[in-house]
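Why should sequence recovery work at all? Because a backbone constrains its sequence more than one might expect. Tight turns favour small or flexible residues, buried strands favour hydrophobic ones, and helices have their own preferences. The token representation captures these environments compactly. In the example below, the structure is given first.
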């Protein structure tokens, strides 16, 4: 049975109060958590602080990843930007945050951790830069910002190669990026130009229901229906649940010797999240079957 998809419920994603609240929560926590120790120290990066404060590190990942994803997504929706490179980068970045936060130890885990850290910064940067490049010739504000971002990235690279890494080296780009997201979303410095509406596509509700029942925990039905933010959230929920279950054996679970009752609590949290993801998938599948 062929139908047109239901319009996405964008009330939460388009609510500036929610976006600004998450953004400033991330900004303030990055300032406090990142400066918990002298940010000029080589071993005082967010990762090193996260070793000793795993709960704070989890919160850092959740709030910072959410601030970037939700605000860049809102920029795309607000301006009608649909570039493939930027969109792929936007949706891939949260999974790099998972690798960065949950996997860290010496050996292969340390390599994955650094890939996740670099990927998280690079992908969010690419998602924002692709939008700026798209509007580069349309308004002076986009030109100035593009050059400014490029200059900042080049400066950080030079400092890294000459002076070395430090907590401040990773904090400054995050602080500036969060402030830039606020300016784009909540001020008139970056006007909307030539917004294009995304056409709706026909979908098969029967197929969507099957996807929900079989692969719903990975957001397959939402991705098929074009509900990409919901699909991203569902997939991320499952990935986070799995990572918390296994974190006793990798990452900061090992570094902090999480065992005994604490290990049971970690497992309980992970399994509870996975059960919630399964319930979400079953609900979607049931609702789609009734809609046929």
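From this structural description, the recovered sequence reads:
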């Amino acid at each position: 049975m062929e139908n047109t998809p239901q319009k996405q419920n964008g009330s939460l994603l388009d609510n500036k109060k929610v976006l600004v609240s998450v953004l400033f929560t991330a900004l303030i926590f990055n300032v406090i958590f990142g400066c918990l120790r002298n940010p000029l120290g080589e071993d005082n990066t967010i990762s090193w602080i996260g070793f000793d404060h795993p709960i704070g590190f989890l919160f850092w990942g959740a709030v910072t990843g959410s601030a970037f994803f939700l605000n860049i997504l809102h920029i795309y929706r607000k301006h009608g930007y649909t570039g493939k490179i930027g969109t792929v980068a936007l949706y891939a970045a949260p999974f790099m945050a998972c690798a960065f936060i949950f996997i860290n130890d010496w050996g292969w885990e340390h390599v994955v951790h650094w890939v996740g850290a670099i990927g998280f910064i690079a992908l969010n940067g690419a998602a924002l830069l692709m939008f700026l490049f798209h509007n580069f010739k349309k308004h002076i504000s986009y030109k100035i910002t593009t050059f400014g971002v490029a200059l900042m990235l080049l400066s950080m690279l030079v400092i890294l190669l000459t002076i070395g890494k430090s907590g401040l080296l990773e904090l400054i780009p995050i602080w500036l990026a969060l402030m830039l997201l606020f300016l784009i979303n909540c001020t008139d410095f970056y006007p909307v130009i030539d917004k294009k509406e995304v056409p709706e596509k026909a979908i098969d509700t029967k197929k969507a229901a099957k996807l929900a029942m079989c692969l719903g925990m990975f957001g397959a039905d939402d991705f098929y229906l074009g509900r990409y933010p919901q699909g991203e959230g569902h997939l991320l929920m499952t990935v986070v649940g799995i990572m918390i279950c296994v974190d006793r054996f990798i990452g900061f679970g090992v570094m902090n010797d999480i065992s005994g009752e604490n290990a049971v609590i970690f497992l309980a949290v992970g399994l509870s999240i996975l059960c919630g993801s399964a319930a979400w998938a079953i609900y979607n599948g049931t609702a789609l079957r009734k809609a046929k």
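A few observations help interpret the result. Residues 1-9 have pLDDT under 50 and may be disordered.
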